Amino acid sequence: MRQVPDLESLRLLVLVGEHGSLGRAATELGIAQPSASKRLSTLERRLGLALVDRTRRGSALTPAGTVVSDWARRVLDEVDGLLTGADALRSERDAQLRVAASMTVAEHLAPGWIGELRRTDPELYVGLQVTNSGTVADLVLRGEVDLGFVESPSVPAGLSTRRVATDRLAVVVPPDHPWARRRRPVGPPELAGTPLVVREPGSGTRDTLERALRLAGAGGIRPLLELGSTTAVRSAVMAGAGPAVLSVLAAGVDLVDGRLVEVSVDGLDLRRSLRAVWPAGRSLVGPAADLLAVAVRGR
Fold first, then answer.
1. pLDDT digit string (tens) for 184-241?
2. Is residue 2 part of a domain?
3. CATH number of 283's domain
4. Could you give the CA distance from residue 167 to residue 248 in angstroms, rounded to a whole number?
5. Residue 277 and residue 250 share a domain
6. C-alpha distances out from residue 80 to 77, 85, 87, Å
7. Strand partners, 173
8. How far from 123 is each of 87, 97, 287, 289, CA to CA, in Å?
9. Does the keyword Transport apply (predicted)?
10. In a domain, 1, yes or no
């Protein structure tokens, strides 16, 4: 039977990636550095992977460590969600507004919208689920949330929709990738024929890319690595795994700082609309209507 890594070891790995230092990660967890080093070594043995490069200048995640760190972050987030949910059940406190958002919207837009809404109603309790666009649509259709935000190019029947923002996808590579120095744009056939780091099926970013390639007559994509979050895709690209197509909302800071380079693309429309969705035939009222109004004002 495989041994399951303990949560504190996963949290330590995530902190090493964030701080670039085993010592600082150990300090944040309140443990001695030798103990932290032993925990990381045990984690590497259990997984059979080299996760951290240790040098005199600090500690850096290996490419495998970067991917595992993102998965670990998702596990820790789920555990935090479990504990938060248990607290809510104990207090019998129900969310007054249940929202689901795709990852790009949840990471870059929804916090501002919800913050503005709560400034006018500080007592409002908002429950936000972060998932891919396909799952957001399913949650809205099943009535499990009051309002959803998606980034996919189409939505299922049975949903009303309204555009709340616009976005653009960009082909991105690390600075040392050959595409970072090329002078001619990448065309749809070449992009379709190149193995890419991609999100999982159901992701709005992946759906938008696949639709754009089909419309350009270039066929589908060739996944090199499938990851469950935008953060994981960014990290894998910066670690040298391969090119990816990301929202400029998600990659903007990395492009400005030079950690990623945008590659020119010719003959491919990668613009998209980010939209709110709710059950068709139903008028939004109360906090859900207020949140939609805040999102629309921010366009």
1. 999 999 999 999 999 988 899 999 999 999 999 998 899 999 998 888 899 999 999 9
2. no
3. 3.40.190.10
4. 7
5. no
6. 5, 8, 11
7. 261
8. 18, 11, 12, 17
9. no
10. no
